[in-house]
Amino acid sequence: MLFMVSTLITVAPTGAEADKVAAPALPVTLDELVQTAKECEEAGAAVIHVHIRDAEARPTLDPSRLRDTVAALRENTGLIVQLSTGGAVTDPYEHRLKVLDAMPDACSLTCGTVNFGDDVFMNPWPFMAELYQLTQAKEVVPEFELFDLGHVAALHRLLDTYGAPYGGHVHCDLVMGVPGGMPGDARSLVAAVAALPEGATWSATGIGRTTLPVMYAALSAGGHLRVGMEDTLTYAKGQPVTSNAQLVERAVALTRIAQRAPMSPVEARSFLGVRG
Ligand code: KMH
Ligand code: ZN
Questions:
Q1: Residue 229: domain span
Q2: Among 205, 170, 166, 198, residue whose Cα is nearest residue 49
Q3: Contact 122, 129 (CB under 8 A)
Q4: Does residue 1 lie within any of the structural domains?
């Protein structure tokens, strides 16, 4: 098995689903997001996966807020700024495509539709294909979000049809344990990794109580990690997460035990092929 020397740690601090009632530490204002980003960079994160909120803390894809967010994160951190194009399950495709106008370093690109609890997260082929070609035209590095094994097949189709991503490197994120997606366990992770395109790299994240099993499985299979309050609100039984940095610190501690240092943002930039 191939083990990499360092681990790319992505923090997903907010998401589109939780609120301050469920998670008081959730960063929902720009100031809170920037503060979280600084703490997470200090703790060892290299990429930030960003969802933003409006003045009432509801999920939004407002273009000017997105631009301000990208600018503020660039000004205050060295993190690679990856904007979510998934948004919330209610966001229309046109708004999700416009996310790239904020010119982030990177963006998420989910490779198929998936049941999402009681909702459906829609990513039909024409939308995926249009979004992928936009990433190529705008020189934004896509991270392929894979919630299910069928999404890996759609990723192959995307690459076969439209060629390599901007940056030349295929990097995926296995999002595991979503009710309706692939389970967050080691055997599902191994099956998904075995099906990835040759040369692709990958991180994994387990939602909720699958957080730790997926983190251990990813580290032992040579993968990278995504952590954060988008995916995890409980640190341990009866202990709410107190900050995103707490989750990054745990990931850093585990990757160091695995004899792999966290990758710096500068290393991550060249690893992912992000524009300089
Ligand atoms: N909030 C989910 C419906 C992404 O960021 O690209 C979609 C999601 C994936 O979080
Ligand atoms: Zn997301």
A1: 6-272
A2: 205
A3: no
A4: no
- Looking at the structure of the chain, the number of domains it has is 1
Beta carbon of 162 within 6 Å of any ligand 1 atom: no
**CATH number of the CATH domain containing 35:** 3.20.20.70
Q: Is 105 a member of any domain?
A: yes
Question: Which residues have CB atoms below 5 A from the ion given as ligand 2?
Answer: 84
Residue 108 per-residue DSSP state: E
**Kind and range of the H or E element at 144?**
strand 141-146
Per-residue pLDDT of the chain (276 residues; tens, 9 = 90+): 455 689 999 999 999 999 999 999 999 999 999 999 999 999 999 999 999 999 999 999 999 999 999 999 999 999 999 999 999 999 999 999 999 999 999 999 999 999 999 999 999 999 999 999 999 999 999 999 999 999 999 999 999 999 999 999 999 999 999 999 999 999 999 999 999 999 999 999 999 999 999 999 999 999 999 999 999 999 999 999 999 999 999 999 999 999 999 999 999 999 999 987
In a domain, 223, yes or no: yes
- Ligand 2 centroid to 84 CA: how many Å? 5
For residue 260, the one-letter residue type is R
Q: Does the residue 255 lie in any domain?
A: yes
Ligand 1 pocket residue status of 110, Cβ below 6 Å? yes
Evaluate the CA torsion angle 26, 243, 188, 105 in order and state its sign: positive
